[in-house]
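Our platform keeps sequence and structure together, in a single record for each protein. Such a record has a labelled line for the sequence and another for the backbone structure tokens. The tokens are whole numbers drawn from a learned vocabulary of local backbone shapes. The remainder of this section carries one protein's record, kept here as part of the documentation:
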Amino acid sequence: MEWRQGRAGQMRLREQLKEPSLAGWQRRKIELKLKLGADGWEPEKKIATSSMEKIRLLNSEFPKEWTIKHLSEQFKISQESVRRILKSKFQSSEEHTEQREHQRKLKIRAFKRSEKGGSK
């Protein structure tokens, strides 16, 4: 994998990882830089806004039962994705939510119509 930071930059980051005095968040940040490279954050799996809201709700209501690890296993996304969702404060507007719900219902109706037409 070719990165813009180059081999020297990678070596510097790897050396920093060996320092025992690094805090957990610093270690995670360096590991992410090494893993993600120049492209930055691009999750493999993207989940619906409603699922993100469920993740936030479960973690805020039951933080001991719904840990980051447990949420990532249940929603089948990475722990880093769960961390970012919990850190994010994004709230979609009611208008946007209604519009999204309307589009979803239209797609379901179209799918059902195509299913009926295809079975004849």
